Amino acid sequence: MKKTTPALIAASLAFGLAACSSPKTGTAQNGDLDFAKQTSTKQSAEVNGQTVRYRAFEGIVYVKNPADAKYETINIYVPEAYYAGGSIEGYTADTAPIFFPNQIGGYMPAEAGKPGLDKRNNNQPNAMLVALSKGYVVASAGARGRTAANGKAPAAIVDLKAAVRYLKANDRAMPGDAGKIISNGTSAGGALSALLGATGNSKDYEGHLKALGAADAPDDIFAVSAYCPITDLDHADMAYEWQFNGVNDYKKMNVTMLDYNVKRELVPGTLTAAEIKLSNQLKPLYPAYINSLKLKDAQGRLLTLDKNGNGSFKNHVAGLLAASAQKQLDAGKNLNDRNWLTIKNGKVTAVDFDKYAKAAGRQKTPPAFDAVDLSAGENQLFGTATVDKQHFTDFSMQHNTAEGATLADAQTVKIMNPLNYIGSSEAKAPKHWRIRVGTNDRDTSLAVSAVLAAKLQNHGHSVDYFLPWDVPHSGDYDLDELFAWMKQVAAAK
Ligand code: DHB
C-alpha cells in the first residue's frame, strides 16, 4: 500500500508554512476532511530516558456533519524523524503502522487521547507515547457516549468507523500506512475495538456514517487489541450467572465516570431473594446459547454445556485459568494459597471453576448488564435520543420492574455485538487479534472473551488470547508485550 513521496513533501511544506503563521494547535473547519490542510505543533516527551519528538495534529473533526464536535475529533501524532526521511525500528513515513487507541470507558463519551503519562499505571508513559517512541503513527479518535442523547448505541462505533474512514481517505496526504491500522481499547473501549475489527466495511453502519458525513473510504482495519472487552452484551447476563450463580455476596463497583476520569467505589452487599431467583433463571439459559454457537477448541473438539452448565466449554475456560497459573508456577511463584487449584509436582492438574468464581468474587447483581430496573450503564447505552434507558434483552424486559420501560430495537442490539459479524461475508475482519483479560476481572464473565476468541479462531483468525495472572479489570499494563505483538503482526501479511 501507499503513497508517493511528493505527497509527503507537500505535507511537510504545508506544515512548515502553517507552523510559521500559527503557533497553536490546528483545528479543522467542519466539513473539511482534507488532512493536508491541517497544521501541527512540535512536541516532545521523555520515554525511558530518550527524547521522543513528534508533530501533533490535534482536534481534527473527522466528519463533515458532526453530531458532537467535542467528541468527534481525532488527534494524530507523527514521529518527527519521518519529516526528514528517517526511520524508526525499521518503519518509515510510508510503512509505519497507525496505532489507533480509543479512550472509551464505561460506554461514556471519550475525548481523543494524547501521548503522556498514564495515571492509572504509575505515571509510566502511556501507550500512545510508547507507540511514538517505537515509530508508530498514532491516531486517537474521540467518540460519543451513553450519557448524551446523541451518544446512544451505535454512536460510539459509528464514530470510530468514521475516524478510520478519515485516516483511509487521507492515506496519501498523511504519514503512516492506513492499510495497517491497529486498534486498541480497554473494557467498553476493548469491546468497541473488537467491534471495529469485526465489522469492517459492513453495510449495517452505512446509513449512520452517511448521516455524519463520514469520508468516502472503507473502514476495515488491520489488527485488534482488546483488553477485557465488555462485549456480547445481549448474552452477558446469562454468562455472568453461569459463572457466579451461588456466589451471593458481592462487592459492587459503583462507577462514576466522565471522559475517562473514573471514580470507582466498592459497595458490599448480599443478593436479595428476588436477585437469587433471577440468577437461577438466567444461568440455565447460557448452555443453549453456547451450544448454538458450535464453537470448537484448538483441537477441533466441540465446546458445549449440559443443562447444569457443565461440559467441555466450562473445562475450556478452566483450562485458560490453568494456563495462566502454570505460567506463574514456571516462573517460580507459589500458588498454594489458591484453593481452586490442584498442583502436583509444579504442574496444574485441575481447576475447580466454581471455587475460582467464589474466590474471585461477584461484582454485579443479576442481571448484571440489562438491569430489571434499568439501573445499569448498559441500559443507558441502549437508550434513544428521546428515551434515556431501555432494556436490550427479552429476559429483562419480561422481568422489568421500571415504569414504562421499553426494549431497544433488535438491529441496534445486533450492530453492537461483534459475534454477529465474525465469519460472515458481510464484513471484513482482520486476521490479527490480541485479547487480554486478567484472572481477577469480575466485570463480565470470563466466558465472554473465551467465546469471542474461539469464534475468531474457528473462522481462521489468528488470536493471541491469554488471561494474565491476578490482573484486575484494566488495560495497557503490558506494553512491552503489546508492542512486541504489534511489531510481529505488522511484519506479517
Ligand atoms: C466498563 C465496565 C463495566 O463493568 C461495564 O459494565 C461497562 C464498561 C468499563 O470499565 O469500561
TrEMBL record:
GO terms, molecular function: hydrolase activity
InterPro entries: AB_hydrolase_fold, BD-FAE-like_dom, Tannase_B
SUPFAM superfamilies linked: alpha/beta-Hydrolases (SSF53474)
Keyword Hydrolase found: yes
Keywords, in A-Z order: Hydrolase
Domain BD-FAE-like: 124-247
Protein name per Swiss-Prot or TrEMBL: Alpha/beta hydrolase
Species name: Neisseria dentiae
